[in-house]
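Design job #97: recover the sequence.
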């Protein structure tokens, strides 16, 4: 096995990857993605796309992309050879705050057992023949929806199929067909409509609220922040899954993926990030601009709206700190972890006018807000499945035997 450090930026996992001996380049680790190079490193490496295909993601728009061949992708002491990769601008500098080199996903995960330790910020690639499941945590079986791990569980007591997607920055996002079927919007007692993600295809908007719990594989996490997606195009319009579980939720655990046996393992962390289970307290979405943070969305009746901020404003400083001192990822995190009631002084430019703005942070979905729970008492849904139909109670023994 080999262990690599990673950086968790915008709730995205980035590892250093050498491409054809050059780099390193920062790559997303995405259980829901394939191997991708962004145009900038592809151009620097002299790689040109061949053919054309349409790619989509969290947003409603699509992008045109093509394929190329790389001789080696090296992650520490692990190397994958002769890989076909997509050339796609899946997350521009404005969205991440820096230039991602690409994405590494299914092609890596199908070759190794992959352990993501959100507490230690390490990713370990393990020879499947030498993997010991007994120390990995609670086994959660999954099936593949295309190339995405999909598990069964419950959202607020309602049976659900969850895609496990480390490429998502959110905690859990519910797909539009599932939201409609269970009338979740009408049942949410306190919520805010806001941009809660930005990926291939542009922004993703949701009605963000708190739910009583999310359960999968017998592990229940209470009081979770969830987004009820509002879009009618893009990935969240798909009726073949009910919810998407991202790093915002998974960072409570050490998560191990064994694609060969179709099992995910969860081991709870004693302490997760300070922003785990929180939501932005300003009510705005910011991207990186040429000389500040561009305001891309402002939620109604939010602190940002009350401070007079609007789309197209440029925030040049947070309490005196500009983009040279405060990265985009840190600025977004600051708006999640700074306590409610805190007043920030923003320097804001609108057109040719610059002014000081007082932003008083507030919980848009307070921790004591009534969470969405089961509508009625429901019979227990069938337990988590395994490849041969056995129940979860016997899974750990069976998995150990299959590895032995």
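Job complete. Output follows.
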């Amino acid at each position: 096995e080999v262990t690599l450090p990673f950086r968790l930026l915008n709730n995205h996992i980035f590892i250093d990857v050498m491409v054809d001996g050059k780099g390193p380049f920062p790559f997303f680790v995405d259980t829901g993605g394939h191997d991708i190079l962004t145009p900038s490193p592809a151009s620097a490496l002299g790689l040109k796309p061949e053919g054309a295909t349409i790619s989509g993601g969290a947003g409603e728009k699509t992008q045109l992309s093509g394929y190329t061949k790389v001789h080696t992708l090296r992650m520490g002491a692990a190397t994958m050879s002769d890989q076909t990769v997509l050339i796609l601008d899946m997350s521009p500098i404005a969205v991440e705050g820096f230039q991602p080199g690409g994405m590494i996903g299914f092609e890596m995960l199908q070759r190794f057992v992959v352990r993501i330790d959100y507490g230690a910020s390490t990713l370990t690639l393990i020879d499947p023949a030498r993997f010991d499941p007994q120390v990995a945590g609670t086994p959660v079986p999954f099936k593949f929806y295309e190339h995405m791990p999909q598990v069964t569980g419950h959202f607020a007591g309602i049976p659900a199929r969850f895609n496990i997607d480390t490429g998502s920055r959110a905690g859990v996002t519910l797909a539009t067909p599932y939201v409609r079927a269970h009338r979740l919007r009408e049942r949410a007692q306190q919520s805010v409509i806001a941009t809660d993600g930005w990926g291939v295809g542009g922004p993703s908007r949701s009605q963000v609220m708190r739910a009583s719990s999310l359960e999968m594989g017998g592990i229940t996490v209470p009081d979770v922040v969830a987004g009820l997606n509002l879009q009618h195009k893009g990935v969240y319009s798909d009726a073949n899954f009910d919810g998407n579980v991202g790093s915002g939720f998974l960072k409570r655990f050490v998560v191990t993926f064994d694609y060969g046996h179709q099992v995910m393992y969860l081991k709870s962390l004693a302490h997760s990030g300070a922003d785990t289970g929180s939501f932005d307290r300003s009510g705005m979405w910011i991207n990186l601009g040429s000389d500040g943070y561009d305001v891309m969305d402002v939620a109604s009746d939010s602190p940002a709206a009350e401070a007079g901020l609007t789309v197209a404003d440029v925030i040049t400083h947070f309490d005196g700190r500009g983009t040279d001192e405060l990265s985009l990822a840190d600025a977004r995190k600051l708006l999640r972890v700074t306590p409610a009631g805190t007043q920030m002084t923003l320097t804001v430019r609108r057109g040719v006018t610059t002014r000081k703005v007082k932003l008083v942070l507030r919980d848009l979905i307070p921790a004591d807000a009534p969470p969405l729970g089961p509508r009625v008492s429901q019979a227990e849904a069938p337990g988590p499945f395994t490849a041969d139909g056995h129940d979860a109670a016997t899974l750990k023994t069976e998995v150990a035997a299959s590895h032995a």
